[in-house]
Amino acid sequence: MDDDTTAATATESRREVVPAERPWSARLDKGDRLKITDLHGAQAVDFLCFSAEMPVERYNAANTIKLARTIYVGKGVTLYSELARPMMTVTADTCGSHDTLAGCCSSQINAVRYGVENTPSCRDNFISEMARWCLGPGDVVANVNFFMNVPVDGEGAIGIAPCLSGPGDYVELHCDMPVIAVLSNCPQRHNPCSGCEPTPVEVVISR
Ligand SMILES: [Zn+2]
């Protein structure tokens, strides 16, 4: 038996391109790895995770920020649940700019901010994708935004600035518990969080 070949084929179990503006989800086991690649650059990816064994337990931004002692997610930062249990840990990051504050876009806030009605949004993407896992609109909580650039100044002012990710930049997360991972490839065209022109991303699950 060729152990190297076996190991190589056993490592990657799923590779998919998530089209521009679309959601995606998967169940991952403890020890699995999820790699998210910004194929074209400047594409925000809104992300939530839930305990696969008890989905009422989910990613909690406040616990993650408190325990990381930073508002920025990067290599070595663990995403914590509301029960302060480690859910997923960032093991690789070639971008260095990921947001915990801005949450997801919605058609409602697009109407308030930009005066446009019935736009595609991450909130609607989350709701439709999470329904596959029997999760409802009330489960759309403050999420991580991979590749999204939300600078905060010393006075506390925040903005949405152009993404710093280039083509091929990626983050990889290790599962600290079995999770349902849900993402929205952000369809926003009214601010620079997705370069004003949404593009596909790639997801790879390794186990
Ligand atoms: Zn969005």
Automatic annotation (TrEMBL):
DUF1989 domain span: 16-180
InterPro entries for this protein: DUF1989 (IPR018959)
The species this protein was found in: Salinisphaera orenii MK-B5
Superkingdom of the organism of origin: Bacteria
Stated name of the protein: Urea carboxylase
Region called Disordered, residue ranges: 1-21
Compositionally biased intervals (Low complexity): 1-11
Pfam families in UniProt: DUF1989 (PF09347)
